[in-house]
Amino acid sequence: MVQGKTIVVKVGSSLLANAERLTPRWAFMHNLLEDIARLREGGAKVILCSSGSVALGLNMIGERPETAGLRDKQAAAACGMPLLLNGYKQVAHEYSFEIAQVLVTLRDLEDRKRFLNTKNTVDRLLAANIMPIINENDTITTEEIRVGDNDRLSAKIAQMVQADLLVILTQVDGLYDKDPSEPGAKLVEELRDVSPYLAVTEGVSDLGSGGMLTKIQAAHMAQNAGCDTLIAHGEYEQPVTSLLNGGRRHTKILANELPESAWANWLSDRLQMAGSIVVNQETADAFKSGPRHIGREDVLSIQGPYVKGDVIHIYGESGTELARGLTNFSSDETMALARNPNMSAMQLLGYKTGGTLITDKNIVVLDDRHLQWELPADDVMTEVLPKN
Ligand code: GLU
Predict the structure, then answer these.
(1) pLDDT tens per residue, the chain (388 residues)?
(2) Is the N or the C terminus of the chain less surrounded, counting Cβ atoms within 10 Å?
(3) Residues lining ligand 1, CB < 6 A?
C-alpha cells in the first residue's frame, strides 16, 4: 500500500517531552520508529520532521516553557537537539535503520538556491536509505528570521520532496468544526477547502509553537503540491500505519487534483513576506489572462527592503493580492528605476540589465487555491510618485 510513496511525518513537542518533567517520552519514540520501520519495509521513503529540541533542553538551562524567552529557547535547543537525536539514533538502530540530522532555517526554504541545496541533501540521504530527521535550527534563529513552527516547515519539506502524504501527529484527534472543548464540537473527517476553517482554529500548546492554525496552513501548502495531509493524535500503538489502515479517527485534507508545478509551489507558498509592490490597474487587468512582465512603469508603491532574488507580493490598487514573483532588482533599485522612467537602467544602476522588474515566467498569479496576504500598512509602503 505504501510501496513507492514518500511520506513526511511530523511529530510535535508534546508527544516527545513529558509536559511536567520535560524529559523524553521514550515509549512514544519507540512506537513511532517501530512504525516507521514498518513503512520503510513496505517500500515507503520516510522523512521525519521532529520538534522537541527546545522542550527537552529546558531542564538543562533551568527554565520552564511558560517563562522561557527567545534566548532561553535558543540555548535550550542547543541542549535538547543532541539529546533528541541521540535518542532517535539509538532507537532507530534497534529497528535496523539509519537516521541523519538536517537543521534548516527560514532562508533555506525561502531562498531558491538554498532550497535546492537542501533538497539535494535530503534526496541524497533518501537515496542512501537513511531517514532524514528535520528540524529548524532554533539555536541561531531569531523571531524575525524563523519559521517558528514545524507544521509549516514539514509542509515545505513535503513540497520539496514532492511527497505523497504528510502525517501531522499531535495531541488532538484532528480538526474540529468548533473549539473541541465546546459541547457538540464535531471532528471534520475529510475536507478539501481549508479556508472556512482558518477562522476557527486558534489555540496553541504550551510546549510546541504550532496550534491547529499552522496545521491547516501546512495542509493547505501540501495540498497545492498534490500531497494529502492527515492530522491525528500521535499517542497510539502504531501511530502512522493505524491511520493508513483506516483504523482510527483523524482529519484528512485532500490534495488538489491539479497540483501546481514544484516551481510554482515554491514561488507561491511563502512563510514570510520579503517585500511587496502595488501595480497599476492595467497590470492588474492583464493578470486576469495570466502572468506578464512587470516593468518600472507599472509600479505605484514599494515596500522593502528586499533584495534581488526575493519573492515579492504583488497587489492591485484596491489592496487585493494578485500575484507573487521573483524580483530581478532590490527594493532600492526598483524605486530608482520606477522614479526615473526616462533614465536608462545602466545610468541608474551602473550595470547592464534589461530592466524588467519581474519576468512573466517568474510570476504566479493567485487564484482560489491561494490564501491571499494582507497589504502591509500604509506607513511601510513608499509611493513612487509621492503625494503632495
Ligand atoms: N523547532 C522547535 C523544537 O524543536 C519546535 C517548533 C514547533 O513546536 O513546531 O522544539
Answers:
(1) 899 999 999 999 999 999 999 999 999 999 999 999 999 999 999 999 999 999 999 999 999 999 999 999 999 999 999 999 999 999 999 999 999 999 999 999 999 999 999 999 999 999 999 999 999 999 998 877 789 899 999 999 999 999 999 999 999 999 988 777 888 889 999 999 988 887 655 555 555 555 788 999 999 999 999 999 999 999 999 999 999 998 899 999 999 988 889 999 999 999 999 999 999 999 999 999 999 999 999 999 999 999 999 999 999 999 999 999 999 999 999 999 999 999 999 999 999 998 899 999 999 999 988 888 999 988 888 999 875 5
(2) C
(3) 13, 51-55, 135-136, 138, 149-150, 208-210
Ligand 1 centre and the CA of 52: distance in Å?
6
Give the residue, by CA position, lying nearest to ligand 1 atom 2. 51
Tell me the CA–centroid distance for residue 202 and ligand 1, in Å: 18
Cβ neighbourhood burial of 83 (10 Å; 0-12, 13-18, 19+): middle
Among 53, 83, 143, which residue has the most ligand 1 atoms within 8 Å of its CB, making it the best to mutate?
Answer: 53
| Model pTM score | 0.92
- Looking at the structure, do residues 293 and 244 belong to the same domain, yes or no? no
239 shares its domain with 304: no
Query: In angstroms, what is the span from residue 7 Cα to ligand 1's centroid?
Result: 20
Give yes or no: residues 173 and 40 share one domain: yes
H/E element, 364: strand 363-365
- Check which CATH number belongs to the domain holding 32 and give it: 3.40.1160.10
> Rounded to the nearest whole angstrom, what is the distance from the C-alpha of residue 382 to the centroid of ligand 1?
36
Distance CA 80, CA 78 (A): 6
For atom 5 of ligand 1, the residue with the nearest CA is 51
213 and 283 together in one domain:
no
Q: Which atom of ligand 1 is nearest to the CA of 54?
A: 10
Q: In this structure, are 105 and 186 located in the same domain?
A: yes
DSSP letter (8 states) at residue 211 = B
Residues 21, 22, 24, 28: is their CA dihedral positive or negative?
Answer: positive
